[in-house]
Amino acid sequence: MALSTPTESDPSLSPSERPVTRRERRAAQIKRSTDIATARPIASRPATRSASSASGRPSARTAPSSAAPAAQPSRWKRWRSTLVMMIVVPGLCAAFALPGTFAPASQAAPLFEHQDRTANAQELSVSTEASIASVSRDTYSATSQSELDAAAAEKAAAEAAKRAEEQAANRQSSSDSSGTDTSPVAPPTTPYSLSAVFNTAKQYIGTPYVYGGATPAGFDCSGFVMYVFGQYGISLPHGVSGQAAAGTRISVSQAQPGDLVIMSGHDGFYAGNGMILDAPKPGGHVSIRPIWTSSYYIVRI
Predict the structure, then answer these.
(1) What is the pTM (predicted TM-score) of this model?
(2) Number of other CB atoms surrounding residue 139 within 10 Å
């Protein structure tokens, strides 16, 4: 059975009875799609309104009428904050940068100047010939009580000698250029002899030593000898070498008390048995003591 496809519609048929062609069917579908797309927004609004009116409360997706105006101030606040930051932050950066930009060259240079710490650095060179010095430990010893007593006695004697020297300076008369003492000398009470001279010298034991002294207020070594012999009318110079030259040198075995013991820079009366009667040194006094050296000789006046 053969099927016949009409190529053209029969004009005698009514539109409802006439078969639809493929082209008309496609055009109808496109028109229907366009009508649905156009009518969908319009149709949704009544549905939404009807849904809200049916439930008695507004839909969750429907914003109130004041939502649009309320969004504008919040959006303006955000823009205002952004605008303030855009103006203030560059201004602050510019304010901190201005002092370095407009500072004088003498002040701005140190900010950017790089200091080379290696320049002018000190150098230390150690010679290979240097040797380590040997260090020895110091030793200490305690001061004995006898040394302390001797030091105290010497200090007291020095003070006493100083006072005696001051007193002697007030009493002592001036000497002539030859060195002899011009103070009055007591006349001899006994004839001259070595024993008489020695006995007279012993009367001044305890007299303090005074440098340059030639009176009973204070004697030095040659001043003591000069004063004693002066009482017997014998004038001697005030000096060890002059007194040694004024007498006769004899052997030590012939020495008698009253002879002179001559040393280097010192003299006194021989007291027998290796002893001497003299005015010793500052801080001492006229006394008899052992001769402490073998470097001496005897002179008889």
Answers:
(1) 0.41
(2) 5
